[in-house]
Amino acid sequence: YRRLHARETRLSEFNQTEIKAMLGSYTKVLFVRDPFHRLIATFLQGMGLSPSFSSFVQEVLDSGMHNGSAAWKPLVSLCRPCLIQYDYVVMFGFLRQELGHLLRRAGLPAGGLLPELTDSQVQWTYRWLSEQMFSELSAQQKKQLSHFYRWDLAAFPFSSSFLSD
């Protein structure tokens, strides 16, 4: 794109014509993950200062949509999937299968480039962790989280998410 080296770095700083031209010249890939799994990962990485998962979730809920960290904000507010037509959406938990397909579509050899991914073990671990962490939350927190991530749950197939219940 002609303004590739312009001073602007955020897409929102370009006008609609420039955005359309720029996005049309790229292959757009969106990596998505169950919002509840994102919360668990953020908590386990120590990005929240809370001593318990329940108090961390309350911090997230209190911070709201506009003041929260990108680590836990709803994906639709960060990636704008309704405005940007992504060429590929890759689901966490199916990385090996989907990345192989994506690399083949790009004309690259998928076999040698992919790290060893054990998606089934990751899914089992997150299922177990989700059960443990979800049980720590109050009914009100569960309801508020489902509402907080309602657009992510509507936009992506997180059918097995604890927040979908």
TrEMBL record:
<dbReference type="GO" id="GO:0016051">
    <property type="term" value="P:carbohydrate biosynthetic process"/>
</dbReference>
<dbReference type="Pfam" id="PF03567">
    <property type="entry name" value="Sulfotransfer_2"/>
</dbReference>
<keyword id="KW-0333">Golgi apparatus</keyword>
<dbReference type="GO" id="GO:0008146">
    <property type="term" value="F:sulfotransferase activity"/>
</dbReference>
<keyword id="KW-0812">Transmembrane</keyword>
<dbReference type="GO" id="GO:0050655">
    <property type="term" value="P:dermatan sulfate proteoglycan metabolic process"/>
</dbReference>
<keyword id="KW-0472">Membrane</keyword>
<keyword id="KW-0325">Glycoprotein</keyword>
<dbReference type="InterPro" id="IPR018011">
    <property type="entry name" value="Carb_sulfotrans_8-10"/>
</dbReference>
<keyword id="KW-1133">Transmembrane helix</keyword>
<comment type="similarity">
    <text>Belongs to the sulfotransferase 2 family.</text>
</comment>
<keyword id="KW-0808">Transferase</keyword>
<protein>
    <recommendedName>
        <fullName>Carbohydrate sulfotransferase</fullName>
        <ecNumber>2.8.2.-</ecNumber>
    </recommendedName>
</protein>
<keyword id="KW-0735">Signal-anchor</keyword>
<dbReference type="InterPro" id="IPR005331">
    <property type="entry name" value="Sulfotransferase"/>
</dbReference>
<dbReference type="GO" id="GO:0000139">
    <property type="term" value="C:Golgi membrane"/>
</dbReference>
<keyword id="KW-0119">Carbohydrate metabolism</keyword>
